[in-house]
Write a structure and sequence with these properties.
Length: 450
């Protein structure tokens, strides 16, 4: 699996992995927690800084250590197979399958809203509960099959959907900023000051922000398949994180123009899930809002495509290391794609899609991903101390860049656990479940060799 992808595919994967349902929905819950627009912008900006710190750190690891599996490979080499398996297991479930379920549900909900506007009433009638997971399941199956065809098809699908997504968000956001007739609530309805917001509330808000920034490491899963990884990997990660941070701040300006902080905090859960569409509707009118809602669907599909493309690389790496059935490590001889791993990931995502409500899956996933995000950075401290380690790209301001990411990540995890202990317990429990699974698999593997 070598020499198939270039810088643009890597950049597209990073952007598409990051820009998903989070920026379209999460600002509402953050304002509900903090009651503050200054806190909202502070958290989104801080999230961008952390994503850039993480991208710079993994740019060094990704361009130097070119093993399949991305950050899983770094954790294995730095800390050993048991912790590597736990990380890989958690990333398969929390890092890819769960976001696939969430993004497919979001796309289905937008499609359902569009059908409702045409009089079909699929989101408010007897099919309201079943429609999103049913249609979401179909989308997961479709993109799983598309990414099983080959590298050329994957690159084309990813490029097209990502370009359309960026064009949609930037186009409508620019139009709203120039021609919108909103409340201009920056001065009059900004809510409380940052100093009035508790640290635990800020920590919980940052967890939601970092969920939206999840994916800043997306290109590293293609490291072993890039034509010039030493040049293209750092560029894809850093430019991806930087461009998405700018987009997120612009989108939040649109939300602030459309709603005062008390108005946004008072939105129902259903309306918070349509925050971007409601903001565009308020600023530019119902007709434009409907067009935006329809266009967003294809943009959300770019994220679904990115997760389905990159996730199987971890499953494939686990199989190569003998940490899951060898069948999952097989490549299609005609196109070099890990087809079996891709199909397995799709199956796990379908199970999660039907396992709970959107809010339950989101809460479960967000905290777990924050834990994994902190662990991703730690291998660089190990590698930098090893003799013979000569990175082809060096993270700027080392060790302060990875230390900043690690310290802030740890602080947000502690604060969020105090604020929402049940969510933290469930997420951590699912990650730690990897340890008994690892030792159970070892016993099975030993018996099978006798």
């Amino acid at each position: 699996m070598n020499g198939k992808f270039g810088f643009w595919t890597g950049w597209f994967v990073v952007v598409a992995s990051m820009v998903g349902s989070g920026i379209l929905t999460n600002s509402g819950p953050i304002v509900k927690i903090t009651q503050s627009y200054p806190a909202l912008f502070l958290l989104w900006f801080l999230g961008g800084v952390l994503a850039l710190c993480g991208a710079l750190t993994l740019a060094e690891l990704g361009s130097t250590i070119q093993r399949p599996g991305g950050d899983y490979a770094y954790v294995v080499e730095a800390f050993g197979r048991p912790l590597g398996f736990v990380f890989g297991w958690a990333m398969v479930v929390l890092g890819f399958a769960a976001p696939i379920a969430l993004v497919s549900y979001t796309a289905a909900a937008f499609i359902g809203g569009g059908l409702d506007s045409l009089g079909f009433n699929v989101m408010g009638g007897e099919y309201a509960r079943a429609f999103p997971p049913l249609l979401g399941s179909g989308l997961i199956v479709l993109f799983t099959l598309l990414h099983s065809l080959g590298h050329k098809e994957s690159a084309w699908v990813q490029s097209f959907t990502t370009i359309f997504k960026l064009g949609t968000l930037l186009g409508f956001a620019g139009l709203a900023l120039v021609a919108g007739t909103g409340t201009q609530s920056v001065a009059g309805g900004a809510g409380v000051s940052v100093t009035s917001v508790s640290l635990t509330a800020l920590a919980s808000g940052l967890v939601l922000v970092m969920y939206a920034y999840t994916g800043w490491n997306g290109a590293i899963y293609l490291a072993s398949e890039m034509r010039d990884v030493k040049r293209d990997m750092p560029k894809a990660l850093v430019w991806g994180a930087g461009s998405v941070t700018a987009l997120y701040l612009i989108m939040n300006v649109v939300y602030v123009m459309a709603f005062t902080a008390p108005e946004m905090a008072a939105l129902s859960d259903a309306d918070m899930g349509r925050l971007a569409e409601l903001a565009i509707t308020r600023l530019l009118g119902p007709a434009v809002g409907r067009v935006f809602g329809a266009a967003v669907v294809l943009g959300v599909l770019a994220s679904l495509s990115a997760y389905i493309l990159t996730g199987p690389r971890i499953v494939h790496a686990l199989a190569l290391d003998g940490l899951c059935p060898r069948l999952l490590g097989r490549l299609n001889p005609s196109n070099g794609v890990p087809v079996v791993a891709t199909l397995a990931q799709g199956a796990i995502a379908l199970v999660l899609l039907w396992s709970g409500t959107f809010g339950e899956i989101l809460d479960f996933t967000s905290y777990g991903l924050a834990c994994l995000g902190a662990l991703i950075i730690l291998p660089i401290f190990v590698f930098r101390r090893r003799p013979g380690y000569v990175p082809v790209f060096r993270v700027p301001l080392y060790p302060f860049t990875p230390i900043l990411f690690t310290v802030v990540s740890a602080a947000q995890l502690i604060g969020a656990a105090i604020e929402t202990p049940r969510t933290a317990f469930l997420s951590l429990g699912s990650i730690l479940l990897g340890f008994p699974l690892y030792y159970a698999w070892r016993k099975i593997a030993v018996r099978s060799t006798r």
